[in-house]
Amino acid sequence: MAFPANPVYASKDFVNWKLASNAVNRVSQFPVIRSGTQGNGGGMFANTLRYHNGTFYLISTWASAELGGPRFVVFTTTDPHDDLAWSNAIWPQTPGYTIDPDIFFDDDGSVVVASAGEPIIAAYLDLTTGNTSEPWELWAGTGGQSAEGPHIYKRDGYYYLLIAEGGTQLNHSATMARSKSLKGPWEAAPRNPLVSNRGTGNYFQTVGHADLFQDAQGNWWGVALSTRGGSTLYKELIYPMGRETVLFPLFWPSGGWPVADQVQGRMSGPMPSQSLISQGIGPVVGEPDVVDFVAGSEFPSNWVSWRAPFDAASFSISPAGHENTLRLTASRANLTTDPNFNTSTEGVTALFRRQEHTYFNFSVDIQLGFGKSSGDEMGISNFGTPDQHADLGIVYLEDVSESSGKLKPYLRVRARSVNAFTAPEPTTAPVPEGWLGDAIRLRISPRNESHYEFFASSVGQSGKEEAVGLYSTALLSGDGAGTGGVLGIYATTNGGSYPFEGYVSRWRYQPVAQQIGYNSTIFVPT
């Protein structure tokens, strides 16, 4: 449910990936992104990007019970480096209750959409009308469960069909078949699966949902989904960055079948020479955030919100009298929302960036004095969904030591998880008296692969940081969400009727290291 949605990245060297654009970046382009589902999850997933006759086509699944089940949606552009060049949503007919669409352009000009099913199904698509033909069955796979994520390629007179099998957990795999006709019969590859780490001790697990492409030098490559940590940590729900994209080389001889090695943290292949790309709207993946909210600046293009912001006035950069700050107007609902939350009439005041490293430091300074009513709160969050997040907030509550009902700021740690055993009990402690004259710096940092830690300090008293909370990374994991956690800020009245304005400054995301094996860590140069 992130907005902007469907980010597209570009690279010349397969190492430096720059945010080229967000295919969904305007509410007017895709109004359902704001209010099309009342659920805490769903939204957009399972994208396929293809280039044909000067146009990029991005086809995706929009998951929403309110729309009668999964719906296919298409966006097009002739310039993938420009947000505004992406078209409004095109809703082709969805051939039944199915997900994971692929779009394939055949030599005769026909367009085929293939999607999940047992067997995988396909239908002809009329891009002018959006109508699809009666679907037909392709291939059921090699016997694994959940045949999905299909992709069709045409090479040397054959149609090749690549699918995912085994579910998205530890039995995940990518298998292949081919046929002289899209109507079959299909011949399974002699060395299936093409790629999978099931039954291995590899650090990278759950490898599947793959796609293949050829670079400018004619070399073949694959991308796939995977989770880090090995099978033991996976079983303990320790994979807080969710399913990540991995790249692997493969060999595809003319007239033959592609061959690939198992995905590992270090692999060798015919990499292009390193070269940065100049086009695009955003930073290179893995770069730090150094944001001081300078007047006239805009939010970094890699930041997201949960759903589209309901009111743009909820955020203001460097307002008069509060230079180099971001003003937040608090929402009624907090990050968990509540039974009264209605996406058609209200939003949640929060901004995030994706976690991109195993180890990192994320911190923000929060100005005190914002509290007007009991329950007013600002803070930082490690957020997955409204059902999976951990928050370190500064909350104003009535001082129980006084009878006057005077409000006092407290540091509060709260968490929510679908994995109930991973959520720590809430803790609340008064902000130290010596900190009340300064802004308070809140920080999140992983202690190790299995735990995150919250810290707080007074900006005016450097070196006196206090650890205020510890929680399992499993809180952000668990099968179902798929995506990893994001890090950010929020402001809420926790159900109160009177929104307040609060100010934050000095947003920092500092990469530290990537874990790529059980005993292999790559530290980021500082």
UniProtKB/TrEMBL annotation:
<dbReference type="InterPro" id="IPR013320">
    <property type="entry name" value="ConA-like_dom_sf"/>
</dbReference>
<dbReference type="Pfam" id="PF17851">
    <property type="entry name" value="GH43_C2"/>
</dbReference>
<feature type="domain" description="Beta-xylosidase C-terminal Concanavalin A-like">
    <location>
        <begin position="296"/>
        <end position="499"/>
    </location>
</feature>
<dbReference type="GO" id="GO:0005975">
    <property type="term" value="P:carbohydrate metabolic process"/>
</dbReference>
<protein>
    <submittedName>
        <fullName>Xylosidase arabinofuranosidase</fullName>
    </submittedName>
</protein>
<dbReference type="GO" id="GO:0004553">
    <property type="term" value="F:hydrolase activity, hydrolyzing O-glycosyl compounds"/>
</dbReference>
<dbReference type="InterPro" id="IPR051795">
    <property type="entry name" value="Glycosyl_Hydrlase_43"/>
</dbReference>
<dbReference type="InterPro" id="IPR041542">
    <property type="entry name" value="GH43_C2"/>
</dbReference>
<keyword id="KW-0326">Glycosidase</keyword>
<dbReference type="InterPro" id="IPR023296">
    <property type="entry name" value="Glyco_hydro_beta-prop_sf"/>
</dbReference>
<feature type="site" description="Important for catalytic activity, responsible for pKa modulation of the active site Glu and correct orientation of both the proton donor and substrate">
    <location>
        <position position="100"/>
    </location>
</feature>
<dbReference type="Pfam" id="PF04616">
    <property type="entry name" value="Glyco_hydro_43"/>
</dbReference>
<dbReference type="InterPro" id="IPR006710">
    <property type="entry name" value="Glyco_hydro_43"/>
</dbReference>
<comment type="similarity">
    <text>Belongs to the glycosyl hydrolase 43 family.</text>
</comment>
<keyword id="KW-0378">Hydrolase</keyword>
